[in-house]
Amino acid sequence: MKRLVSFVLCMALVLSLASVVSAGGPPPKTTSCGNGDGSANNPIKICKPQDFDVMRTWSMSHFVLGNSVVVPPEWTPITGFGGTFDGKYHWIIGLQAPLIQDNYGTVRTLC
After folding, report:
1. Which residue, 39, 79, 82, 110, could crosslink 105 as a Cys pair with Cβ 3.0–4.6 Å?
2. How far apart are CA 67 and CA 101, in angstroms?
3. Between the CA of residue 110 and those of 31, 68, 92, what are the distances in Å?
4. In the prediction, which pLDDT does 16 show?
5. pLDDT category, 107, cuts 50, 70, 90?
6. How does DSSP assign 20-73, residue by residue?
7. How do residues 16-44 score in pLDDT, each as one tens digit?
8. Is the dihedral of CA 50, 51, 52, 54 positive or negative?
């Protein structure tokens, strides 16, 4: 019985991975400044405070800051981030709390 369950779970994983590969990779994520699929070659661009919600949802992806952003005073930190975030030497203004809590990824070139 355990072998059957293991086999079924393994096949489900293989089929789910096959659908991503056959579709040409992960679907694009849309923000206020365009689309990106979260890969290193096509990162998701952050341009407005609400775009950080995509960063919360797809926390293992690649992100870039498209311009300086002003966040509201009631900012809630992003938790469990494991992707990459390149600030491209832009500013995040108005943070009263950390941008990311529990960072396991890479954050670079923020001013």
Report:
1. 82
2. 22
3. 20, 10, 8
4. 52
5. very high
6. HHHTTSSPPEEETTEEE-SSSSSPEEE-SGGGHHHHHHTTTSEEEE-S-EEPPT
7. 544 444 445 667 888 888 889 999 999 99
8. positive
Distance CA 22, CA 45 (A): 25
Please say whether the beta carbons of 45 and 64 come within 8 A.
Answer: yes
pLDDT of residue 11: 56
Higher confidence at residue 32 or residue 65?
65
Q: How many CA atoms lie within 13 A of 63 on its CB side?
A: 31
- How many Cα atoms are found within 13 Å in the side-chain-facing hemisphere of 39? 8
For the four alpha carbons of 92, 96, 97 and 98, in that order, the dihedral sign comes to positive
Spans of all domains in the chain: 27-108
* Percent of the chain scoring above 70 in pLDDT: 77
Neighbours of 52 (CB within 10 A): 23
